[in-house]
């Protein structure tokens, strides 16, 4: 096996630390999970991209027919499969894959999920087009994305223009690109979706939740 791409290697390296870190906003996470579940049905075939260590996929699995969950980092998928083995669920498949690795031959999915992923994708427009091709007409794309604050501010400028680039230069941070919630919604619409629901969590870097339906 050849060397991993830079970001895949980064996430694999920190996977065990990531897995042991508590969720910072558990209340927000659980609310997002319940909203997401409300759009899913027992007969649905679901794909989660950027699944990390698999926690969300395992919580969603009892509510759907099957969920395939993927991540670019082998280290993350290794942990996800360890969790799967301990829980014994039969309708979950974890595998290593980038967004572009998913073939439309696998489609159509009833829903594609991408939680805390879109701001980490170098070619967001192309990724959204690829995602749209994987969803059946009337199916859902559900995402939660770290975004740029609408009015910037010196703290955000310091983080995005100085701190993050410095960390990336020494291998301590992956690719990241923050856009505003409004820009994100427009990009999702441009990919062939209608926005059904939005929500957000405030902060220096707000998280924007979007449910979109394929036209």
Kindly list the characteristics that best describe this protein.
7 strands, 215 residues, alpha/beta, single chain, globular
Descriptive overview:
The chain has 215 residues and is an alpha/beta fold. It has helices at 6-13, 15-20, 26-37, 55-60, 74-87, 124-133, 154-169, 181-190; strands spanning 45-49, 66-71, 92-96, 109-115, 135-146, 193-201, 207-214. A seven-stranded mixed β-sheet has the order 3-2-1-4-5-7-6, sandwiched between helices. β2 (66-71), α5 (74-87) and β3 form a beta-alpha-beta unit.
Q: Output the helix-strand order.
A: HHHEHEHEEHEHHEE
Number of strands: 7
Rounded to the nearest angstrom, the distance between the terminal CA atoms is 40 Å
Main sheet, how many strands, which sense, barrel? Answer: 7 strands, mixed
Order of strands, main sheet, comes to: 3-2-1-4-5-7-6
Helix-strand category: alpha/beta
The gross shape turns out to be globular
Report the helical percentage.
25-40%
Low-confidence stretches: none
In DSSP terms (H or I, runs of 4 or more residues), the helix count works out at 8
Q: Please give the radius of gyration in angstroms.
A: 17 Å
Give the averaged pLDDT, no decimals. 92
Percent of residues in β-strands: 15-25%
């Amino acid at each position: 096996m050849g060397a991993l791409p830079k970001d895949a290697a980064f996430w694999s390296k920190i996977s065990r630390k990531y897995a042991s870190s508590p969720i910072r906003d558990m209340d927000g996470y659980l609310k997002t999970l319940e909203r997401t579940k409300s759009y899913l049905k027992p007969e649905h075939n679901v794909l989660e991209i950027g699944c990390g260590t698999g926690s969300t996929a395992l919580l969603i699995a009892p509510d759907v027919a099957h969920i395939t969950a993927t991540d670019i980092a082998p280290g993350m998928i290794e942990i996800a499969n360890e969790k799967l083995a301990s829980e014994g669920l039969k309708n979950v498949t974890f595998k290593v894959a980038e967004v572009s690795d998913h073939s439309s031959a696998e489609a159509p999915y009833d829903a594609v999920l991408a939680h805390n992923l879109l701001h980490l994708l170098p070619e967001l427009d192309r990724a959204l087009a690829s995602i749209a091709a994987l969803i059946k007409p009337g199916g859902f794309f559900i995402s939660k994305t770290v975004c740029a604050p609408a009015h910037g501010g010196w703290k955000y400028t310091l983080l995005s223009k100085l701190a993050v680039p410095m960390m990336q230069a020494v291998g301590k941070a992956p690719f990241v690109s923050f856009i505003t919630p409004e820009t994100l919604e427009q990009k999702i619409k441009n990919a062939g979706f209608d926005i059904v629901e939005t929500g957000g969590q405030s902060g220096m870097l707000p998280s924007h939740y979007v449910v979109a339906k394929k036209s």
